[in-house]
Amino acid sequence: MFSAGHVDSATLRAARVVGVVCAILFVSPVALSLAFPQAFFFPPYHAVYERLLGAMLLSLALGLLLALRDPVRNAGVYAVVGLVSGFLAGSVAYSLIADGADPLHWFVQVPLLSAVSIALVVTYTRLRRPHPVVTRIVIAAVLLLPLVLYAHDLVYAAFVR
Prior knowledge:
The chain has one domain (about 10-130). The chain has seven helices and no strands. It has helices spanning about 10-35, 35-40, 45-65, 75-100, 105, 110-125, 130-160.
């Protein structure tokens, strides 16, 4: 069984602060999208997808808040939510390049999701030392994400449209 070792109280407090701040940042687009839909959604606006995205962001926030009780034992939550938010940032960036979406996303959504992702992954690495193989898999997944999205677009265009 993996032993996390001793984590000092300052690191635990910092992990809890990061969890709360990132949870708030996940909730903020849900509220701000009502006032600034062009910064968070992609036209043509579709209420079903907007609700799905809101539900996903709220569940990520709730997962982080539930992990606060014992950040060392729940360090994987920080890692997974960080990976999810990094993938979201990458997919938004890909959509901006491939689909020519509103450039406001470059200044709002991409930095927000990227900052959350970086903060959570750095916090995870402070709580636990990740295995080198896992680190390589995550790096490869993030780097290959644009190719996967492009391949998806090609298959979608060939079979669905």
